[in-house]
Amino acid sequence: MRRIMFTYFTSDPSSKALCSPMLLSTFSHFSLFHMAANMYVLWSFSSSIVSLLGCEQFIAVYLSAGVISSFVSYVAKMATGRFEPSLGASGAIMTVLAAVCTKMPEAKLAIIFLPMFTFTAGSALKAIIAFDTAGLALGWRLFDHAAHLGGALFGMWYVTYGHELIWKNREPLVKAWHEMRTKSTGKGGGRSN
């Protein structure tokens, strides 16, 4: 079976977007079952992550996570000589899962078909990381283990350090942007693009 990786390159030289496959892979799924599983996990953890980060920060983290996990997947595949497409959606979902489990390690979780068995979020995160590390080291092809690990590590890093380093330090940039936009709209009476 031949796999084709879709890459988008713009032919318009005036366009500022040169390449967007890693961002677009944030929404890529291998099958309907893969998409359903990812959407169930996202639905299960979405209220917690939005409560932690807020809507705007969640969207920024989710899209960044898709790009970062796709990049980690591509690097791992290049290192092992496997030239297959990367699906960043699972990595972005792993970021959400890891962020919530890192911030709330004592929260009780259960598997949908086995609700009688509960475990802590911290234990679940350790098990998932161990599974994906083994999968990457042993060359398993069941999941994109590199994308999962990249997403999980990014989620853990972001809620531990990234919020302080990135999100809180964006205030001067946002303020400068608004001042620049306000000044440019004041000249000539209209908006400038």
Automatic annotation (TrEMBL):
Cellular component annotations (GO), alphabetically ordered: mitochondrial inner membrane
Subcellular compartments: Mitochondrion inner membrane
Highest taxon listed in the record's lineage: Eukaryota
Top EC class for this record: hydrolase
Entry keyword set: Hydrolase, Membrane, Mitochondrion, Mitochondrion inner membrane, Transit peptide, Transmembrane, Transmembrane helix
Predominant place of localization: mitochondrion
Catalytic activity: Cleaves type-1 transmembrane domains using a catalytic dyad composed of serine and histidine that are contributed by different transmembrane domains
Gene Ontology MF annotations: serine-type endopeptidase activity
All residue ranges annotated as the Peptidase S54 rhomboid domain in the record: 22-162
EC assignment: 3.4.21.105
Topology term for the membrane: Multi-pass membrane protein
Family affiliation: Belongs to the peptidase S54 family.
Protein name, entry field: rhomboid protease
Organism: Eurystomus gularis
Gene encoding the protein: Parl
